[in-house]
Description:
The chain is 75% helix and 0% strand. It is built from five helices and no strands. Helix 1 (6-85) packs antiparallel against helix 2, helix 2 (92-123) packs antiparallel against helix 3 (126-159) and helix 3 runs antiparallel to helix 5. 15% of the residues are buried.
Amino acid sequence: MQNLDPKGSFAKNLILSLLLIGVTSLVIPLVLKQIDDRKAVDQQRFQDELSRQDTVLDAQASLIDTMAADFWEYELYATDLVISRDPLHGDAEWHQRAIETYYGKSGQQMGIMRAEISTLLRLAPKSTYDSFLAFFNDEIQPLDGCLLELINQDRKAAATPVSPPRDDDRSTPTPAACSPATGKFSGATWDTLAEAILAEEFTNRLDQEFAALAEDFRLDVGPEETATP
Length: 229
């Protein structure tokens, strides 16, 4: 039977232990460094994503504020033009100033509004872009066309000599009205437009569009509510 040298076995075990400790002392720091590096990369990605989200949120908040101001500015031009023409609420000098303002500013204002709608393609769902585009095409552009038609019809009527009424002529003059080319405003007159403005039909539609946009941007959170992440 072969005898084992206890001292030899102890020496081998000691050497193996020292080697293991040495390898471990080299490997563990490398593994820990890789873990730290991975955490640093993940943390940087997380910070970059937060920064991107903050940038998008800032852009959304800025856009909705700017759009609301521009859309309401156009509404002011249109309302001023119509109400100043109303027999009960307006007068000729006010209406003339409103005409000059509308001619001078409404076209550029509509261009700004249309460009802002295009910006929604980057910052809002496609459905929101489609809704605002439909609102612009179906409401604002036809209203603009109708107002310009009524202004031109008034100018032509003012330039046309008026014949003195005959004793047997009891007919009521037909008021100026918008043509079928103005879409939903076909047949509209100064009086019907004034009624619609006083009923706040256009302003209510504006409120609905911007309320939906704020919801899409998650900007509709009240002071005591908490936004859902």
